[in-house]
Design a protein that fits this description.
- 76% of the residues lie in helices and 0% in strands.
- The chain is mainly α.
- The chain folds into three domains: 398 residues, Na+/H+ antiporter like fold (Up-down Bundle); 69 residues; 51 residues.
- Helix 3 crosses helix 12.
- The two termini are 42 Å apart.
């Protein structure tokens, strides 16, 4: 009962914070960690320990699946080379650098323990990265590489973690066996994820007009993929990512519009709650960790934490710039069918590389793996330096999340990298393409032909839409090349009139509901139709008017 009260308390804090996050202009992971830390030091709050099993089984699968399902397979495949380099090579490079530093500068850190610490703090976090990048208008390729890296690097780090832990517990390590096992764990996870994805695609195709069932199945999908892979002793993380990418790729043909609308709302709400809990709980860990480190001075603890954090950040910057310079790892090319606007006029490659190197924030994976360290060895002795490893992990998370999170927007402004927001323009271009194609269909392919009056009304309707979209595209293009930005669109007299009529209808329906002249069932049906009409009107209104 006490734990349930704490959960309700965290929910209240989370919802309250979310109401002011946009006004504070802070990345939400940063704010939530800071608030969690502030709550954790309050004397009346009991010590809360983040259970690793809960993280790996309950939190991680849906968060990774959501991130993968919102990643474009086209973009992921195009940038597979830098994603693989960051998600695999950089993880092991960072792990080695941290291990060397810990072994020579932190007392009682043997090589196995040093490599264990390196494996824990080496992978940037998908959830943290997406939270820090939100609303910054980063280059699309930068965003794709960061999201892709965060999806695959966890598996590399967890496999390294597993072998470093085994070396500490058993005192033995065979390199070639670890290499073969890595191939099996990674490859097996991907294969199982793909199989689960295609089986679920087959099932979704056979389910028709049951959006509730399909929505429930999407909620089950990440857990099914993760547990099947883990039971086969392969990577559950790569399995979930593979399943998410496959289903995302086939989503337009397997989901009905009812299912898409329902799943979008359900998943957005679920991910909001999971993200909030995770980052608040990370902040709550510090007081409990410090209780077990009384034999260290605070200055030495902070010194060790800052040293490991510096190496973690520096190695990422060094490795990314070296890779970009000597191996041409990152080819910042625009797609031919997309307009690049002013970005094509100047070479921002080195700026994008710097931004990419400064966005390696650690998060839930690192904290969960640190907390998953056993309390004792096989012989019953205490696990060496367990709480120091957890503390160092917390400091790295705090520094990379809070410091880099605070400074990233300032770095972007300092580099004078103009926010890239081509999504609105691309959406309008797509709408124009669909509208023009529809006009061609009505004029040449619609069979049997509609009546002359109906055809004229349809053609007039879509010609007006085509003109509207063409005007918006021209405005987008002018805004890309000029410092002063014109409004993309303005509210029309008809839209303004529809908004006023909608308000009147809402008030009338509320009056009838209070008077009880009509049944609740009838009122809810009419209310649903009003909601749909208001949604359509909302999508048509200029963003400045919302």
């Amino acid at each position: 009962m006490e734990n349930f009260k704490i959960i309700i308390f965290i929910l209240v804090v989370l919802i309250s914070l979310w109401a002011v996050i946009d006004k504070l202009k802070l990345p939400y992971p940063v704010l939530l960690v800071l608030v969690g830390l502030a709550i954790g030091i309050m004397p009346f709050v009991p010590e809360l320990v983040l259970d690793p099993e809960v993280v790996f089984v309950v939190f991680l699968p849906p968060l990774l699946y959501y991130a993968a399902s919102h990643t474009s397979w086209h973009d992921f495949k195009t940038n597979l080379r830098p994603i693989s380099a960051l998600g695999i090579s950089l993880v092991f490079f960072s792990m080695t650098a941290v291990a060397i530093t810990a072994h020579f500068f932190i007392p009682e850190f043997g090589w196995p323990l040093a490599f264990l610490l390196g494996a824990i703090v080496s992978p940037p976090d998908a959830v943290a990265s997406s939270g820090l990048m939100k609303g910054l208008g980063l280059n699309k390729q930068v965003t794709t590489i960061l999201e892709g890296e965060s999806l695959v690097n966890d598996a590399s780090a967890l496999i390294a973690y597993r072998y470093a832990l085994s070396a500490i517990l058993t005192g033995t390590f065979v390199f070639w066996k670890a290499g073969l096992q890595f191939l099996w764990v990674a490859g097996g996870g991907i294969i199982i994820g793909l199989l689960v994805g295609y089986v679920l695609i087959f099932i979704h195709k056979r389910i028709d007009n049951y959006p509730i069932v399909e929505t429930c199945l999407t909620l089950l999908t990440p857990f099914l993929s993760y547990l099947l892979a883990e039971d086969a002793h392969t990577s559950g993380i790569l399995s979930v990512v593979s399943t998410g990418l496959v289903i995302s790729w086939r989503a337009p043909e397997i989901f009905s519009y009812q299912t898409r609308m329902r799943t979008r709302i359900v998943w957005d709400t679920l991910v909001f709650l999971l993200n909030g809990f995770i980052f608040l709980l990370i902040g709550l860990q510090l007081p409990g960790i410090l209780k077990h480190l009384s034999n260290y001075t605070l200055a030495s603890l902070i010194g060790y934490g800052l040293l490991i954090s510096f190496i973690t950040i520096f190695i990422r910057i060094l490795w990314i710039f070296a890779s970009a310079r000597f191996t041409n790892l990152f080819s910042w090319k625009q797609r031919k069918h997309r307009t690049s606007g002013s970005s094509a006029k100047k070479n921002d490659t080195w700026k994008n590389v710097l931004i990419l190197s400064w966005t390696g924030s650690r998060g839930v994976i690192s904290m969960a793996t640190a907390l998953a360290l056993p309390l004792t060895m096989y012989d019953g002795q205490a696990f060496p330096q367990r709480y120091l490893v957890i503390f160092l992990c917390f400091v790295v998370i705090f520094i990379t999340l809070v410091v880099q999170g605070f400074t990233l927007p300032h770095l972007i402004r300092k580099l004078k990298v103009s926010p890239v927001d081509n999504e609105a323009k691309e959406e309008t271009e797509l709408q124009l393409y669909v509208t023009v194609s529809t006009l061609h269909y009505i004029r040449n392919e619609y069979y049997p032909k509609p009546g002359k009056r109906i055809a004229e009304e349809l053609i007039k309707k879509y010609e007006i839409l085509a003109g509207k979209y063409l005007t918006e595209i021209r405005t987008h293009t002018r805004n890309e090349s000029e410092e002063t930005h014109e409004p993309i669109s303005t509210i029309t007299p008809m839209q303004e009139a529809q908004a006023e009529i909608s308000k009147f209808q809402r008030q009338l329906l509320l009056k009838l509901h209070k008077e009880g002249k009509y049944s609740d069932a009838a009122i809810k049906l009419v209310e649903r139709d009003m909601d749909i009409n208001d949604l359509k009107l909302h999508q048509m209104l200029p963003k400045e008017q919302l």
